[in-house]
Design goal:
44% of the residues lie in helices and 12% in strands. It contains 15 helices and seven strands.
Length: 330
């Protein structure tokens, strides 16, 4: 993109001087500066040269809690947010990001979403539609005959039918999707890959299911949800991802921490061994069609729900119900 095409040129050099001095020399931005910088990135007010410098600088430095908070403030203001009428459900919405898919194990994120939705929970799943070498949640939903929602209104109609809504990130947050696509050019992930996994796309409070893959992100996200996440936006469950997905590992219990109003409660402890659940019957193949057929069999009660997912669903229902009760009481 040329500077002549920019709606309003944003002077990014002063920010790059702060974050672009390498892992040891770089400093972090304030929450306010991070907001302004990311808003300019979303609005295309930064040249490609500066954008590349910013993305690589943040990749090398790593994001601070204030930077993630500021980025997320700008991100959530950049797209139309969803609503759920208070009388529609006894549950607050649950947000499930899906940006990894299955590589070795079957992707059971659609099963989690369907189990929650049939209990009356408004469930929004958002993510990518394709990922080379992986089986995405979007592909499994298609195999299940569930159409993707391309608008907020279509997603809200799914909630009324007690169906999970899947919104491609390009439909939910187009400006963020554009920044995700820079990975194809630069070859590395950027801050937006973290933001899409923690954003809250609803106007009212919701429960976010959040996963991490590297230990440094556990520390940063724990601090964010404990100190910087606005309590009015709802709660979060934080867990190590199952191949990056926020669904419980069917073969092994993983720690799930619940963040509520700045406090953290461990709901599920990590299971030392997988012996207790390895006997569970899972799809023989991980392709979308096989996973969809197995998921349908589970929903018909012809196959058992993995115990770890039963436990995850139980806690999701408890917390989302309490969030909704608190919202209606205010």
């Amino acid at each position: 993109m040329e500077n002549a095409q920019l709606a309003e040129n944003f002077a990014a050099a002063r920010f790059i001087k702060v974050i672009g001095r390498g892992k040891d020399g770089a400093r972090s931005l304030s929450r306010s500066d991070a907001h302004d910088l990311y808003a300019a990135m979303l609005d295309r007010r930064i040249s490609d040269l500066e954008l590349g410098g910013i993305l690589l600088s943040m990749r090398i430095k790593g994001e601070s809690v204030d930077e993630i908070a500021g980025f997320l403030d700008a991100a959530e203001a950049s797209f139309e947010q969803l609503s759920v009428p208070g009388a529609l459900s006894a549950f607050a919405p649950i947000v499930i990001p899906s940006y990894n898919g299955a590589r070795k194990m079957a992707n059971l994120t659609p099963l989690l979403a369907l189990l929650l939705a049939r209990e009356g929970v408004p469930v929004l799943v958002h993510g990518v539609t394709q990922d080379p070498g992986r089986v995405t949640t979007a592909e499994i939903f298609t195999a299940l005959g569930l159409r993707h929602s391309q608008t907020v209104q279509q997603a809200e109609a799914c909630f009324a039918r007690h169906e999970p809504a899947f919104m491609p990130i390009g439909a939910l947050a187009p400006a963020m999707a554009r920044l995700l696509e820079t990975r194809r050019i630069l070859g590395v992930r950027n801050s937006t890959h973290t933001l899409v996994k923690i954003m809250q796309p609803f106007k009212g409070p919701a429960l976010r299911l959040v996963s991490y893959t590297h230990a440094e992100y556990l520390a940063m996200l724990s601090s964010y949800f404990s100190t910087a996440a606005p309590a009015v936006r709802g709660d979060a469950f934080l867990m190590r991802g199952t191949e990056g997905e926020t669904v419980a590992n069917a073969r092994r219990s993983q720690q799930i921490d619940w963040y509520h109003a700045g406090s953290c409660t461990t709901l599920v402890q990590t299971q030392p061994t997988a012996d207790a659940v390895t006997a569970i019957s899972l799809p023989e193949d991980r392709d979308a069609a096989s996973t969809a057929l197995w998921t349908e069999a589970v929903l018909r009660q012809e196959q058992p729900v993995p115990a770890t997912i039963v436990e995850q669903v139980k806690y999701c229902l408890q917390v989302s119900q309490q969030l909704q009760a608190d919202r209606l009481a205010r």
